[in-house]
Input
Amino acid sequence: MTDSLQSSGRFFLPELVDARIPYEERRAALLVAARDFLAFHHAGIRDEHRAGASGRKVVASLTSVADTLIRNLYTCVSGGIAAGPKDRTTLIAIGGYGRGELNPRSDIDIMFLTEEKEGKDFAKEISDRVLYLLWDLGLEVGFSVRAISDCLEIADQDLTARTALLDSRPLAGDNALYAEYEKVVGTAIRVKQGKRYIDEKLEERRLRLRKYGSSVYLLEPNIKEGEGGLRDLHTALWVAQVKYKCRVLQELVVKGVMTDQDGAEFEAALDYLWRIRNELHYLAARKTDQLDFEKQEQIAAFLGYQDSRKGQAVEQFMQDYYAHAVRVEHIATSLINKTLQQGDKSFGILGYLRRRVVEEGFYVLRGELSLISDDLFEREPALMMRAFLLAQRHSVKMSIPLKGLIRANLHRIHDKVRRSKIMAEGFLEILRSPAGVVETLREMHHLQFLNHFIPEFAHIFCKVQHDAYHIYTVDVHTLFAVEEICKVWRGDYAAKKPVLTQVAGEIEKRELLLLAVLLHDIGKGEGKDHSNKGGEMVPTIARRLGLSREDSQRLEFLVRQHLVLANTSQRRDLSDDKLIVQVAQTMEMSENLRMLYLLTFADLKAVGPDIWSEWKGRLLQELYEKVYDVLERGDFHSERSSEKVRNRTRKIFELLEDEFDHRILREYVKSLSTRYLLAHRSREIAEHLRIVLQRGEKTVQIFVRQDSEGEFSEIMVTTLDAPGLFSLITGVMAANSLNILGAEINTLSNGVALDILQVRSSTGEMVTAPRKWERVENDLCAVIEGRVRVDELVRKQKRPDFLTPKARPRYPTRVEIDNAVSAEYTVIDIFADDQVGLLYQMTRTLKDLGLYIGVSRISTKVDQAADTFYVKDIFGQKIRDEERLATIRQQLMERIGEEI
Output
């Protein structure tokens, strides 16, 4: 494409250039010719891109088309404009266009350079004609009209402008004027302002990464501005160009700043990102650099990825993208650091005299660990682990050359090296250390040393989970989980989570817990059932590390069971003694439970900010304490309930006998179910009965209690029971933008309903406004009395059709039914995309199926709902008939997601 454009010369008819014809008469034909030219060549370039052309080829072709267009427009419009001897003008491409890096929707930045003062009128007339033509062609153009003095002034004041001028390239006009500009302005930026430019550019980089994400592993990365994106490469190149007074990458190779291999890697990194950005622009029909979920799926298909055993096509694509981003970050950082170290006197003879040898083969200088001999790892590759240990022990960073030598020798880590005493014991010593564990593991991960030392970990390196709630890749999530454990040990949660902190202090082998956290998700690289697949890998890893049989078995247990406490606490009835005993039998001993409790906390906290909540923390702690009590008691049989019920009933009478008639009180206490009496403390039950008895003749009575520690509001609703009552309550909550976290549905034997719900606002906060609760009570009353239809209330709350929600990965609805987990109830788990009124749809469907809900657990992960219902049939029995169970599953699958 580029060659054909260059050989075609001028593409306009001769009359379009004829200065004897007034410009106004030529303009319309000029615009038509230019539009045809762009349409023809842009279509051809797009076809080449779709056929597999490289990112570099497409970028070069788009730049060449723009060059040809603008040069010819300049020639056509300048004819007929009277020019004096001082009316010299040159048209210059700057910024990304100046670098020759146009993507399909990139801005075209140009500058009309003119003589001081005298030539500005002439330049302005040309620029006006060119710019209006470009704008009429629908191009995004950034422009300026400046003299050399203007360029010097703005370069001195504005970093962005200074950088744009650094990437200058002549397009048309006076060549001598451009040479003068390059000599004066280029010298000012590269020489006179060099140090200042580098300092400001690095500070700009720091601020940019803080804004767009200082991690390459963000869920929807910015391909241009985010870490590991195009701007990282540009910044490194700008800094090096200014430091070494170069104009292009090849000059850095010629000067020996970069090797030929370094240069080739830099070019390949640009090409990869350009190819993706080209497709992103074509898909969006506008300039965009955000790889959102929808575009990720489309680009994965374009690049030829297919769903396989390894995972979805989009997950494979993003895994490769993140791995590439890691490489980009390394390339850019290495070039920047090499540039900054050039000329640093501490690397000369004086530095040699000041260095401190910390161990044979290693020394520390200016807070950095370095090697005495560059061939150390070639001779003894196991000493790479020693480098990490020494850096941790002495609280110093690794020098850039040391990091480079580790990367260069990773291929020497074979199984014999992994099993060596230096490697295995060194790694466990790092995990035992009271400080620097997270930083050391992150450095191992960044240099990809961890992938070679624990090959199983390589399976999850940059591994993507294509959903809205896993904010990070699997490997980075794992490192954040390790950090959470270290924060607990450090006492960061002592005030808010005293039980968790106390449990952490009781752990006997901290290195074993950290190892479990590091390995808990390694099975995700192998497909479904990752807990068991990860557990199968553990014995091999444990043998490599020289762990004892007991430690190996505990490590395998923790990896296999790492989801048990989270799933049980969030989706099961914790008042069910049988369930607690089952979990205790799974745990077998208290140390297993302690470690699993901490691992579960860290796992949930590290998924993302919208996943953890104090409500989930409350449930997790409740489960831990109940299971711990069973393990410590050593009796895996449920406690005798009859004595417990008698004691609780007696205490309830003592608390309420002065407030209510003794006969009425006895009647209501007698109407309470054994399950309810065992699930609540005496004071809680007394509080509930007060609300029930104070209702009087009112249709419905609610009472709200704020739980500041759990960060939720608890609402108690009492009224006369009716079929589908809980469905009405969920509909009213949805209509008032209240999210239900959990619910306990109680019906007294005298027909009075007492439902207890934990709720939060749609923004995840407690609901404290009294007027809000008045509206909820009024809506409930109106719905129960039949004055208002609940589905109408819910419909009003739904998002208007014109407000399109942000694209998210969609997953099919799943319904799972379990008759084994509870002795009294059939348990239904429903997994679906979250939406306004979803819980109402579920409960309404269950009501229509003739099912009564006893307990409900609601769990939402950003856009995915996982709701659990404990149900009975109209006779108070579990549903065991297979045909009936199939009907229930089918009806739920069909009706969830329907329009309300």
